[in-house]
Amino acid sequence: MTDALDVAVRLLLVFVAFLVLPLVVGQTEHKVMAHMQGRLGPMYAGGFHGWAQLVADGVKFAQKEDVVPKDADRRVFQLAPAVALLPYLLVLVAIPVAPGSVGAVVDAGIFFALAVMGVGVLGSLMAGWASANKFSLLGGLRTAAQLLAYELPMLLAAASVAMAAGTVSLTGVLDAFAWWWVPWQIVGALVFFVAGLAELQRPPFDMPVADSEIIFGAYTEYTGLRFALFLLAEYAGIVVLCALTTVLFLGGWHGPWGDDGLGWLWTLLKTAVLAFVVIWLRVSYPRLREDQLQKLAWTVLVPLALAQIALTGIVKVAIN
Question: Is 16's pLDDT higher than 70?
């Protein structure tokens, strides 16, 4: 009974984090972009520092009519937002926040996280196919091409960490972590983070939702709360990507002064800093062309990831 209660409490905490953290990232993005781009609205909505911007957005989406195109595949169209969002909840369950603090221990946590994150992209593909809109279909096709290109370097970068730690368990990676890994695995970290941004379709990798070319891609026909779910999935993806990068490459709960009892705080702080970087990149860099996007994946990220694996193998042999 005690074990069941413990599991229930852990899952409840993960669910609460899943509901809160993406909203915090969304609110932060409004504020950061407002200051960097001089956008006055999000800075002042509701008074002190625009605290009501998130509330205003929620009310706006709730009031909009839920429209389903006449020729759309209704069931697939309505299911797509949930398929895009729920995989990130499953990944969050497997991410260790502090020693002994994880929703569910998954032995092959690295592969589980990457596999389930890939399922989330199916939501965009379903939305593009089911909308009966040529621009939505083009957005879905771009999503598929982007997934195929960037899944490989992301997996290879994660594999280098698994080689270094000698395990594919996320908790095992943190148990084996040493601070000298940071410069050793820095190339893999950059590859993993950039490839993750591309999988999330975040700028400058937002070709599947290029509003100047295909309106808003796979999400063009979505309105109201269904559209809001896709936005929530994007912010949930940011949280999950940053948390995974923290666990795999930045030591997760390990602080710079050893075991100081603040493991969860270090994990949260590192994740928050990476989330800020994601927002900063959106403001700073223009969208890539489709050919540039593919070239970056196959001629830059994949070779770098393979080089990182080779370096990891050499270091492991030398140490042993």
Answer: yes
